[in-house]
Amino acid sequence: MLGLVNTVSSGSTLEALYSIILNGSDDYVDLGETFNSVFQGHFSISIWVNFADKDPSGNEYVFGSEIGTEDAIWFSQTSSQTYVFHFKSNNDEADSNAWSTGYNDGDDGETGWQHFVFVVKNRGSSNASQILCYQNAVLKTAVTGGLTGTNHAAFTSTNLFLGAKNNDGTAELFSDSKISDFAIWNALLDGAAVTAIYNSGRPTNLTFDDGGSYDNSSALQAYYKMGNGRFDDKPNGVIHDQHAPGFEADLIAANGGLVDSFSGNFTHSGGLMTVTADGNQNWNGGNVEALTVYKATVDIVSGVTGKIFIGGTNSAVFSGNGVNVRYVTTAASNLNFVSFNDCDDMVVRSLKVEKLKGFPGLTSGGPTFSSDTP
Q1: What is the CA radius of gyration of the chain?
Q2: In angstroms, how far is CA 309 from the centroid of its own chain?
Q3: CA pair distance 83, 136, nearest whole angstrom
Q4: pLDDT above 70 (res 5)
Q5: Are 134 and 195 in contact (CB under 8 A)?
Q6: Which of helix, strand or coil describes residue 356?
Q7: With contact defined as beta carbons under 8 Å apart, do 37 and 50 qualify?
Q8: CATH 2.60.120.200-classified regions of the chain
Q9: Which CATH architecture best describes the domain 251-355?
Q10: Beta-carbon neighbour count of residue 249 at 10 Å?
Q11: pLDDT at 67
């Protein structure tokens, strides 16, 4: 994969240098957040998509989450040459009217880049919620009815996935497409703002107001550039939330540093640490937060015969000498900060553990990044 490209602008226009390519079989992005509190009120969603197939054989979900049969949100391209946005809360549905993709049965090839915006209004109490669906700044369907404000406000679901639907923890109905610039607001975008975001077919930097029709940057709740956002790490498949990108302070240093903080089965000499833990050896210098993404960077000098776990999870398995980087989503409860498993004289030069800010997206299945963008 290509290296990191940082393209921050102080104005409204930001060139989209990368998109994410999904294979339609197991690629998706876990955004690590349900956005339940956002979806319980007014909200808007914007996304750029280039579908690989104008006429898919089955439904493909661009984004979605669902829990049980009561709560769901998704956007899909159907096998009937239509697009559908679906929102269901407390077993009360508010489907948009399906609108035509404009392609015919049997059409092959990419659709070209399309921009979609979904505006959902909770009109309160027994009043029916309203859904507006835009494609390339054109209002395609507007629906009022089917979902009361009371039920709307009760929405709860699982982590939102891009490129698939999260069905109560299981990814399914994968999308064969390219995706760029996905954003969520806890506000209603009006038609002028939608047109400004479409920007005649070129994405803009949504963290800044444009001084005109788009004045909703303060309502931005999550924003993913798909490869060229600040701190995005394409080789490791990590997409930072651009409304709050970056890392918090190194937790090891905050607790006294590598050499000073470790004792017991950890010995120090010449600025190096040797781990002599035959079984599990925990360091209790602090706890990581539950269900949070951390970046762990360790420089192993020699003796790699064991594993280092971060936050009590084995998803950060280090192997091989040199600098190793892993991203870890911690368990549901706060656990030991760092644990070493079956390490036989592992020599470590440095160890850093940093919490990612915002709602970082972690890729699964091995999607790649492309310079094909809107």
Answers
A1: 23
A2: 23
A3: 13
A4: no
A5: no
A6: strand
A7: no
A8: 19-246+362-370
A9: Sandwich (2.60)
A10: 10
A11: 92
pLDDT of residue 207: 96
Q: Mean pLDDT, to the nearest integer, of 132-144?
A: 95
- Whether the CB-CB separation of 363 and 239 falls below 8 Å is answered with yes
> What is the number of residues in the chain?
374
**pTM: predicted TM-score of the whole model, two decimal places:** 0.90
Angle of CA points 28, 30, 35, to nearest 5°: 130
Nearest to 183 by CA among 219, 230, 134: 219
Please, are residues 238 and 360 in contact by the beta-carbon 8 Å criterion?
Answer: yes
pLDDT at site 1: 23
Among 178, 141, 168, CA closest to 27? 178
Instruction: Specify the pLDDT at position 351.
Output: 85
pLDDT digits (tens, 9 = 90+) for 237-295: 999 999 999 999 988 887 777 767 777 777 888 888 888 765 566 666 566 788 889 99
Q: Are 306 and 341 in contact (CB under 8 A)?
A: yes
Q: What is the CATH number of domain 19-246+362-370?
A: 2.60.120.200
